[in-house]
Amino acid sequence: MTGFDAAAVRFGPDGLVPGVAQDGADGRVLMVGYLDAEALRATIESGEVHFHSRSRGRLWKKGETSGNVLRLRDLALDCDGDALLLTVQPAGPACHTGARSCFDAGGAAAEPQGFAWLEELWSTIEERAASRPPGSYTARLLDGGTDAVARKVAEEAVEVVLAAKADQAATADVRTTTRHALAGEVADLLYHLLVLGAERRLAPAAVIAALRERHHR
Question: Looking at domain 6-90, does it have CATH number 3.30.70.330?
């Protein structure tokens, strides 16, 4: 967490500011609470989200009894300075009902898959494309142009197919090994696809838009 200015927070007349807790893995809103200056300070210093309990009139660490703490990953202030966005890693269900989110309306939401981390990977690839640092594998690939990157995509696609077939044929005693190998090959393919997008100046947002257009067809 960098660049957060606690002095810029505009607390309301009651000394509180609303805080929205969002899962850093997939952007799911988990809960909304209120922080006073004490709760904000405790959150920043401990790395675990604290709120001010309006019903009990005291500092409250989320998960202090259940163990379902919210580990702080980032903290941002809105444009007016009167609302906080807390990006977190939850240790368990955020809602007291046992649901993952207080907005699940009694139903369990799908387990997050962590796709949001691909944003970080894309940012790294973009940085390598711009700076071309010596010794960078990504930069070396990009220096080879479309043909070099596309060739790696084709190679990795074949390796994914072979790994999938090996996992299909595996017996239970080696399934963990073959599943791990398959995950690694899929990771390699995803990475090289993103590099190909960077080389062709095709942002992932365009791919997501294409997927959305085809959704429910």
Answer: no
